[in-house]
Amino acid sequence: MKHTIEPRQRLLALDTSTSTLAVAVMEGGKLLAERNIKAERNHSAYLVTAIEEAIAAAGVGKQQLDGIAVGVGPGSYTGVRIAVTTAKTLAWSLGLPVSAVSSLAAIAFGALARGTGQAPEQFAEVIAQTADDASACSENNLAYGRDDDKDLSAGAEAAEYSAQHWIVPLIDARRGQAYTALFSAAIGQIPRRLEPDAIRLVADWRDELAARLQELPSGQRPAGVWFVGDIEVHEAAVEELRPFLGAELHIVGYELEGAWLGLIGSEQLLCGAHDDVHALEPNYTQLAEAEAKKLR
């Protein structure tokens, strides 16, 4: 059984939390192959085949993998379970470490990169440098929000610099709600978490973010604020920020892609951020009690 991660680690990444099934094979932070399929509610019918096709296209075998990264949501209740169950089964049978990745983090990363013309291959060196720096690894594990008891505000300092962009991923949860979070990144950086994954009323979340922005001096506001993901149903609510943000507001529809999930997973695994294969569970978020009362 393997107990260490090779410097040129081969990683299988998979996610079924949204309508898109995403699979990628990485090596040392470089994308070898990916499969992104609009599977809607049929993830279970396509996942195994997509994994086999991606591994074959990458020119590796399952026995040559060094780790597995899995999107744990939040998102579709049934969808998330499919990827997590598959990842746990593979990790256990192959004796591999497994790392849980926030699906919202992957959406935020991919959407900002695509919206600013960045390609996955640009981040391989960034990941390698982080993995060689123990202090950076420790900071990144906090930034990913792997310990819910820790204060995420340590990462908020990054948002005070005007080169940073705020990214607000949205996965529609109906009735005016979305699974969402807040991340920050400058061009060429992997987004770091500012607020935890949660299900929120989008109108309230919009107002909370607007108030937070207004508290910042004009020279410390982010270069752009990106609402990304399942944006169509929430576009009208988000557009209410236009008078305040103007051209700094970006509203971008985006579907999760395996490469960005794989990049986050590569960094986490190379930093030693593994999860107990038996205890790993999907991220089922709950609506805050105050917000839940509004819907009753």
Task: Write structural notes for this entry.
The chain has 296 residues and is an alpha/beta fold. It has a domain at 10-106 and 257-291: ATPase, nucleotide binding domain (Nucleotidyltransferase, domain 5). The protein has 10 helices and 10 strands. The protein has helices at residues 43-58, 77-94, 103-115, 124-131, 134-143, 202-214, 235-239, 242-245, 258-270, 289-294, and strands spanning 10-15, 20-27, 30-38, 67-71, 98-101, 165-174, 177-185, 192-201, 224-229, 249-253. The strands form 2 sheets. The chain has a 5-stranded mixed sheet with strand order 3-2-1-4-5, with helices on both faces. Strands 8-7-6-9-10 form a 5-stranded mixed sheet. A hairpin with a 4-residue loop joins strand 1 and strand 2 (20-27). Helix 3 (103-115) packs across helix 9 and helix 4 runs parallel beside helix 9 (258-270). The longest helix has 18 residues, at 77-94. The chain starts with 9 loop residues before the first strand and ends with a helix. Residues 1-7, 145-160 and 287-292 have low confidence and may be disordered. InterPro entries: ATPase_NBD (IPR043129), Gcp-like_dom (IPR000905), T6A_TsaB (IPR022496). This is tRNA (Adenosine(37)-N6)-threonylcarbamoyltransferase complex dimerization subunit type 1 TsaB. One of its GO terms (molecular function) is transferase activity. Keywords: Transferase.
